[in-house]
Specification:
Elements lengths: L4 H27 L9 E8 L6 E10 L5 E4 L6 E8 L9 E11 L4 E10 L8 E3 L4
Parallel strand pairs: 1-7
Antiparallel strand pairs: 1-4, 2-3, 2-5, 5-6
Length: 136
């Protein structure tokens, strides 16, 4: 009579190792944030109205040259807030889009204040798709 217990243990070990390899591969795939060949860029960061007394951020608009503006409507309750806007069709580096970011603020007397910043929307290097732009 043959002893199958040794063979069974080897088979169980091989199955466990194969499962770990598959799990590790799945984890590595999901950790990749973006395909560098994709044209999507997420511009995100914080917008601050600290330069205006008793003011809070109401929205952030970003307008790439020759394209439609995208606007992030914010709560209007805080001096500093996070925003995120997604753009598609962004060309590969070294090309980029010239853009203008506008921050709108309102103060405690309901007066509005605005400031702008010019920048370039470009695909970040590597596998990320997020470009950080803090506005203050």
């Amino acid at each position: 009579m043959r002893d199958f217990s040794s063979r069974g243990r080897k088979l169980a070990s091989a199955t466990a190792v194969a499962s770990l390899v598959v799990a590790a591969s799945a984890t590595a795939t999901s950790a990749t944030q973006a395909n560098p060949d994709k044209s999507r860029v997420i511009v995100s960061g914080t917008a601050s109205c600290e330069r205006f007394e008793d003011s809070s951020v109401t929205d952030v608009s970003i307008t790439p040259a020759g394209k439609d503006a995208k606007t992030a409507e914010l709560s209007g309750e805080d001096t500093k807030e996070k925003y995120k806007l997604t753009f598609t069709g962004v060309p590969k580096l070294p090309k980029s889009w010239q853009a203008n970011a506008t921050v709108n603020c309102v103060d405690s007397e309901d007066d509005t204040h605005t400031f702008s910043k010019s920048f370039k929307i470009q695909r970040p290097a590597g596998t990320t798709e997020t470009q950080t732009l803090n506005l203050k």
